[in-house]
Design brief:
This protein has 163 residues and is mostly beta strands. Helix content is 15%, strand content 39%. The chain has 2 helices and 8 strands; from the N terminus they run H-E-E-E-E-E-E-H-E-E. The chain has an 8-stranded mixed β-barrel with strand order 1-2-3-4-7-8-6-5. Strand 1 and strand 2 form a beta hairpin. The N and C termini lie far apart (89 Å).
């Protein structure tokens, strides 16, 4: 007489389930939580036909890394949001904006109140990220001479306030 080993997948799964449940109860394992999508909101600039998701950015050793194809958003102070994108991509037509143009961000309408082109070395991130008295967005992209590696000599900085 020959003995055959039988393996029942259902019995295995029930055993595995009860083992995990026991571990969960004994050592406090918690089930994995769903990952939050990192898209904060959307920016729209009708004058240049721009509509883009805004990806939340985090400061890493004093540096904000610009996303490849979307707009990046960062805020460290009340009423001030900094938005950044590549001039060779999403912000390619940003230079066409003029004072008084509209930008829609996070379902709020903003009016362009200032446009600056500064040498990269003259840009103060502390000033750009400083708190504001009213809801303000600062939109920045590269300008001037483009260098290899994706950098440029200047920055186009557009400030807009909520209406």
């Amino acid at each position: 007489m020959e003995l055959k080993k039988s393996w029942d997948f259902r019995k295995f799964m029930v055993g595995a389930f009860f083992t995990m449940l026991t571990l969960y109860l004994l050592i406090g394992l918690t089930p994995a939580k769903a990952t939050k999508v990192d898209v904060a909101t959307e920016i729209k600039i009708p004058k240049i036909g721009l509509s883009s998701d805004v990806t939340l950015l985090t400061m890493n050793q004093g540096i904000l890394k610009t996303p490849g194809v979307a707009v990046g958003g960062y805020s460290r102070n009340k009423n001030k949001t900094f938005l950044v994108g590549h001039s060779t991509g999403v912000f390619g037509d940003l230079g066409k904006l003029e004072l008084g143009d509209e930008i829609y961000y996070d379902l709020v309408s903003y009016t362009v109140v200032n446009i600056d082109v500064l040498q990269k070395s003259d840009v103060s991130m502390d000033r750009l990220l400083a708190p504001a008295d009213v809801d303000t967005i600062v939109v920045m992209t590269c300008a001037g001479e483009l260098f290899s590696g994706g950098d440029a000599s200047h920055r186009l900085i557009i400030t807009a306030v909520a209406r």
